[in-house]
Each structure stands twice: as structure tokens, then as C-alpha cells.
Amino acid sequence: MIKVRKIGFEFPDDIDPHWKRDEPEWSHMVNGASLTMPYLEPFLIDSIREALETIDDPAVHDAARGFNAQEGQHFRQHRRYNELLKAKGYPELAAIEDEMQASYDRMRARRSLQFRMAYTAGFESMTLGVTAWLVERRLSLFGGADPRVSSFILWHFVEEAEHKRVAFDVYQAACPGYFMRAVGVFAGALHLMWLSRRGYVAMLKKDGLWWNWRSRLRLWKRVLEFGSYAAPFMLRSLSPRHDPALEPDLPWVRAWIDGYARQTTTDRVPLVDTRSADIPPPFAEVAT
Ligand SMILES: [Fe+2]
Ligand SMILES: [Fe+2]
């Protein structure tokens, strides 16, 4: 069962877009990715919905409903965060958002359902690498950072791991085919990287950091780190025998999901302690 969690993340005015103060580059990489979500995730949802029209299996329908509900929560929360980014010094992001919308509109109009589902499954295989990166390197990526943004991002990727198999299963049930699935791995990952880059380059330019070599080195370090985590997942997903259900669950992710389920109230926003030496899941009673 895929659980829908409606969490009241708050993005008040005192959140700094440089939410990890010593690393504006990493902050903006996340901000750039966030900017894409209200355009990407509705596209994933629509592709899944259309594919379901051709599938009878009730188990696939159930899982896909959970997937769509989780993705719906993700992009709505990201949209609120993105409004904050625009209001806090980066109004030029609005023009990039228009380009993102146009890009997904073109794909909806011109690309086959099989391509759109392959893109969806391909993108989802990359997100598993991102979850591993965020969780395994959490001290470096979130240590000392604003817990409100850190917790929001970690929640999103916990749920990405939770619904890891759904897009793949829908693709296999609705429009299977190895060649297109492999195309989708590259299309989903590279398109998203390109769109995210549009956002973070604009923000770093606005900060006057884009032509600063120290800043560029810090950025490249994080981009390479991202690649080192995402690439193995993408390569494995290129195997003809690939099944994302076989990707092991990370203990931290499992502990987050179990901890959330054991809470007596869901009113509380699960904020991670970014000052902790371990950054455990944000539920006092569970340890990793
Ligand atoms: Fe998502
Ligand atoms: Fe997802």
C-alpha cells in the first residue's frame, strides 16, 4: 500500500533561498530541481492516468493511484516553495517556468504514450539514485542547513523510494518494449537535468557567483557526486531484466516510513535535526 501523506510543510518568509548557507551552489541545485516539479510531476501523473485506461489489473491501478496521489502532494508543496524563491529575489524564474510548461506541453502533444511512459519510468529510476545520495550523504548535504527545507526534500525522496516500482509496472503493463524503455532512461534523466540547470544557473548568475571559479568548483563537486549516485541506478535500469522492485530499501528510508506510521498524530511536520551528528529520521522513537 502506498500511503498518501498530506504534510503541512511551511515556507515562511524567513527561509533563505541559500538554505544551506555555506553552499549556495548546492542550495540552488535543489532550488532548480524544485522549480521543475510543478511541470514534471503533473506530466508523470497524466501519463500514468492515460496508460491506466489500457490496463485491467486492479493491483496496478491501486499502486498507480497511490503514486499519483504522492506525486500530486509533491508538486503542490514544491509550487509553494517555488513561489517563495521568486518572491525572495529571483523573479526571473517565472520566465523559465513558462519554458518548462511549454516543453511539457510539446511532449504531451507530440510524443506517443509509450515514449511518455518510458520517460516517466526512466525519470523514476534516476530518483532512486538521488534518494541514495541524499540519505547516504545527508550529513554533508544537510548538516547545519535549514531543517524546514531539508525535511521537505528528504520527505519527497523517501516517497520516491516508496513508489519506486509503480511507473515501471505501469509501463510494462500498458506499453512494454525494451528499446523505448531504454530511451526513456536517458530522456527522463537528461531532460530533467537540463531543466533544473536552467533554474540554478539563473540563480547563481543573479548571485554573481556563476563566473566565480571557487563557486564553480563547489558546483561541479556536487554535480559529480550526483552523477556518481545516479549513474549506477540508471545503468542497472538499462538491463533487459531490470526490475526496480529488486532495488533494496535504505534503512533510513524504511525507518522514516515506519516512524511516520507509528506517530500518534500526523499534524506535526516531521522536521529532521540538521545539527545532529547523524541526522536520524525525524521520529524520536525510531533509530536507524
Ligand atoms: Fe515526486
Ligand atoms: Fe516519483
The separation of the N and C termini measures: 22 Å
Helix content: 55-70%
Please write the string of helix (H) and strand (E) elements: HHHHHHHHHH
The count of helical stretches stands at 10
Estimated share of beta-strand residues: under 5%
- Report the C-alpha radius of gyration, rounded: 18 Å
How would you describe the shape?
globular
- Low-confidence segments: none
Name the structural class. Answer: mainly alpha
Strand and helix map with partners:
Elements: H1 24-52, H2 58-87, H3 93-110, H4 113-136, H5 138-142, H6 147-162, H7 166-174, H8 178-206, H9 213-237, H10 251-262
One fe (ii) ion (FE2) binds next to α4.
